[in-house]
Amino acid sequence: MKVPPVLYRATREIIGEYRTDSWVAALDYMANELLDRWKLRFDDVPGAPWAGCESLVIPVLTQENYQGVLRFAAPTSAHTAAHAQVLRALKMWNGHGAVRVIRDDRSFRVTLQERLRTKDNLSVLPLADVPPVWGALQRSLEIPATSEFLRVQDVVAGWLNSFDADAALLTGWSEAGPHDSLLLSFARNWMQTLASSDENWLIHADLHYYNILAGNPDPTGISTWKAIDPQPLAGPTAYTLAPVLWNRLAEIPSDHPQAQAAWLRGFATDLALCAGVDPQYGMGATVAREITNMFWYLRAASGGSNSSLADAARSLWVSRALFGADVAGVNAHALKPIG
């Protein structure tokens, strides 16, 4: 089984080369075992198998010629619990707003899922057309969470515990400015709001463009957008806006930095309203997440990862823009993209 380099490298970085090679060597056995057991056959699709940093996706056909995929989660220690959480969330959504799970084998960390149109993710839409589609999808995923999911409130409480030490990372950083203390106070206040929230929705915490794929048309010709690869959490829906706002910055329709920042605030407002989220809460939660991302990147940079400084600069720009601060003449089109 050929494993795309992006998945091989990401897995090797976590569990090492020997264990990664052992998993890759076992994939042929596992896939063929499942074909026999679930009465499937491989579907020869150009470009397959597909992969991200966390999973391998192999197109298959059922006995009835239904188009599905086998999704193998990478066997990293982090994914042992994460795979079970993802599977639980997808089964709770049951194909409504998220990809449908048909069968699963936890010992192989594999699911048989419906096949979506992998080339048609939400990034194919112009930015102006995104809010109503994303908002409708977010609403469709909004169901009460159960107790087994990690709570946003507990995650954010951890951020607050380390906030002062993390904020010290800005000292001496060339991108930081004298007015960023107000931004940090704003972020801390919204962290406190998130940590004290009594909302308990099952949320997809990584609901960005590339995790939203077009479904295949039903018998009436209607197709819908569906979420994949959830990072399931329990908590307030305002937490879900951030990944859409820190992607596709190079496409913001202006060349002037402050106009770009104003456009992003307007876009965030449209997203929030379409999703039934208070816009100020959505932007505040995004700033809280982006400031936390910035801290993470700065810690990585202090450990020798120079490329992380560009990531930190992007998180700072998004945070300043949504806060309504001066973006210091930095053009969004020049920021390092995610990934």
UniProtKB/TrEMBL annotation:
The keyword Nucleotidyltransferase does not apply. InterPro entries: Kinase-like_dom_sf (IPR011009), NH2Glyco/OHUrea_AB-resist_kin (IPR006748). It comes from the Bacteria. Its EC number is 2.7.1.72. GO terms for biological process: secondary metabolic process. One of its GO terms (molecular function) is aminoglycoside 6-kinase activity. This is Streptomycin 6-kinase.
